[in-house]
Amino acid sequence: MSRSINLAVIPGDGIGQEVVSQGLKVLNAVLPQDVKLETKEYDLGARRWHRTGETLPDAELDALKGHDAILLGAIGDPSVPSGVLERGLLLKLRFAFDHFINLRPSKLFPNTETPLAGRPDIDFVVVREGTEGPYTGNGGSLRTGTEHEVATEVSLNTAFGVERVVRDAFERAAARPRKKLTLVHKNNVLVYAGHLWKNTFDKVAAEYPQVTTDYLHVDAATIFFVTQPERFDVIVTDNLFGDILTDLAAAVSGGIGLAASGNINPTGAFPSMFEPVHGSAPDIAGQGKADPTATILSVALLLRHLGYEVEAVRIEDAVSADLAERDGTARTTDEIGDALAVRVAG
Ligand code: NAI
Ligand code: MG
Q1: 14 C-alpha to center of ligand 1: Å?
Q2: Structural domain contains residue 242
């Protein structure tokens, strides 16, 4: 195992700055003495765009390649036209670094709120395909702006792309205690892509007899997320379904302040990127009100990805314990970060 971490840090905009510094605080506290942590901060996001008009220049994309992983806060501000930073920065990174796994764990921690009645036992992870589906920009429009406008947005699914994400999901399911994997698609209507996904899933399943498998149409999955979330362990799905399902997952399991994610290239060819699911929250930025827990849980995913399993679990346990003891007293971003840093070090 490598005993040094060369981390790229993109705090970004709004509360991104505030939560990332807490993430780094906890990372520093949890790492053993002999692990050398090097960080380099990249100034990217809305502020940079306003200043220079740049989103992600090639020189910075190249520099980012040299890191072991990337920690990102949040990118975006209402003052930037929609799509500029999403396409020019976030999607550009995801495609350039071939982040074909978008990993989103959902866990209902103790003493947290869920809109669901009866506090079901929620502990599942969504493995969302990250580089294909309808998000490749494969489309166009004709007669744009007229009554006869025609728009296409083609969903791209390759045997290679589907198989690599399905394999990754089977590996993750096999490593978890319940060993259950659910494929979510809509193969009764989207028959071409749906059959590629289902056939690939069934083929790979034969290599993992220890993993229990299930299939759900995406509409049925939304019902079960609300009525029976405890039935899920690992879920694998395409880019669009995964985008929608993971927001629902965050909503039923403690909310946006706790949702962590990873944009992962499991081959290690490029650095993977870890970030809270939430955005830059301009409504509370600069007030010390942001909950840094989602970012700190993203740091746990980052550590697990780099092979620091013990440290990852220590962060997750610290978050669990911290949440269990929350009594409704408001704490600042910094105070929550301090409390977690103390717990992981102790
Ligand atoms: P948002 O997630 O920034 O905020 C939604 C609501 O949740 C707000 O009321 C906010 O105060 C609250 N919230 C979010 N994170 C919180 C935290 N850690 N602690 C406490 N409360 C929190 O989503 P919104 O308002 O739709 O987007 C704001 C900006 O962020 C936009 O420019 C958007 O494009 C960008 N964005 C960026 C993302 C990214 O960097 N990956 C993801 C989502 C949005
Ligand atoms: Mg989303």
Answers
A1: 9
A2: no
Q: What is the CATH number of the domain that holds 90?
A: 3.40.718.10
Assess contact for 243 and 209: CB atoms under 8 A: no
**Ion ligand 2 residues within 5 Å by Cβ:** 243
Helix (H, G, I), strand (E, B) or coil at 156: strand
Segment 3-38, tens digit of pLDDT: 899 999 999 999 999 999 999 999 999 999 999 999
Q: What is the pTM of this model?
A: 0.94
Q: Under DSSP, is residue 190 helix (H, G, I), strand (E, B) or coil?
A: coil
Q: Is 104 annotated as ligand-binding? A: yes
Q: Verify whether ligand 1 is closer than 6 Å to residue 45 (CB atom).
A: no
235 phi/psi in degrees, rounded to 5: -125, 135
Q: Could you read off the pLDDT of 172-210 as tens digits, one per residue?
A: 999 999 999 999 999 999 999 999 999 999 999 999 999
Distance 286 CA to ligand 2 centre (A): 23
Report the atom number in ligand 1 closest to the C-alpha of 19.
18
How many domains would you assign to the chain? 1
Instruction: Give pLDDT, residue 341.
Output: 98
Of the bound ligands, which one is closest to the alpha carbon of residue 275?
1
Which pLDDT does position 1 carry in this prediction? 53
Q: Which of 17, 50, 247, 278 to mutate to test the pocket of ligand 1 (most atoms within 8 A of CB)?
A: 278
Residue 86 belongs to some domain of the structure: yes
DSSP state of 83: T
DSSP code per residue over 243-271: HHHHHHHHHHTT-TTS-EEEEE-TTSSS-
Going by their DSSP bridges, the two strands 212-217 and 180-185 should be labelled as: parallel
* Domain range for 288: 1-100+259-346
* Residue 74, in any domain of the structure: yes
ipTM over 0.95: yes
Residue 307 covered by a domain: yes
